Amino acid sequence: MDRIIVKDLNTYFGNSHILRNINVTFPENNVTALIGPSGCGKSTFLRSINRMNDLISTFHHDGYIYIDNKDIYDSDVDVVELRKKVGMVFQKPNPFPKSIFENVAYGLRIHGYDDEDFIKERVIESLKASAIWDEVKDKLDQSAMGLSGGQQQRLCIARTIANNPEVILMDEPCSALDPISTLKIEDLMHELKKDYSIIIVTHNMQQASRVSDYTSFFLNGEIIESGKTEQIFVNPKEEKTEEYITGRFG
Ligand SMILES: Nc1ncnc2c1ncn2[C@@H]1O[C@H](COP(=O)(O)OP(=O)(O)OP(=O)(O)O)[C@@H](O)[C@H]1O
């Protein structure tokens, strides 16, 4: 089933027309990679899916993004609820200067949960699901800032998971990490897709082919081609896609 359906989406920052006539769907319980050269609009697109672009005053759009048959830009959509349903992990791990435990509990607390037993259970579950539990279980009250970059990124994934999202957006989540931490996050994505739909922006073609089931290739604000990752990489339909994945530009 398709978790997200994007129809005729155009986005603008002031007069700059950034995304052009985007039509694409994202199936549930799969990883989709967004690839394309720098500045082609991948992040803008990703940030449209949880309305992060709303924070930029010049942003406007037309078209639709349906999640569970509801346009997320409808005037009655609660953006806080939307961002709970559509979590996001950023390029640079961004833990709060709080304890490991409180980083994961944070989202639960701001959404009004106050049963400490429930919070504890959910924090532990989320840390386990993010493959970091064994590394932090004996120091949950220590500052998250003392963790390595790769551990911080898995903690940020745990923080997202604690909110019980349906979709996780990842904007180059490994670009600040060493190869071993990168592999840990990639392994984690294979586990997480059993429960969540994941959309990842990556510049790393090997990573896209390792982790994703589907791939969309962006160029100059348009999607040139979308399809199963294997098809895109082995047998692209569009010449531009082939040029990009074989490293002839970008
Ligand atoms: N806040 C903003 N105001 C105006 N223009 C912006 C803003 N953010 C991004 N843009 C422009 O939108 C276009 C797409 O940028 P975006 O960051 O989405 O590309 P990208 O494909 O994610 O690039 P990269 O791979 O380098 O991160 C670029 O031309 C960029 O300059």
TrEMBL record:
Query: What are the residue boundaries of the ABC transporter domain, all occurrences included?
Result: 4-245
Q: Name one GO biological process term.
A: phosphate ion transmembrane transport
Q: Name one GO molecular function term.
A: ATP binding
Instruction: Spell out the GO cellular component terms annotated for this protein, sorted alphabetically and separated by semicolons.
Output: membrane
Q: Which Pfam families match?
A: ABC_tran
TM stretches of this protein:
none
Query: Could you tell me the keywords of this UniProt record?
Result: ATP-binding, Nucleotide-binding, Transport
Task: Give the PANTHER family listed for this entry.
Answer: ABC TRANSPORTER I FAMILY MEMBER 17
Name it. Phosphate ABC transporter ATP-binding protein (PhoT family)
Organism for this UniProt entry: Methanobrevibacter gottschalkii DSM 11977
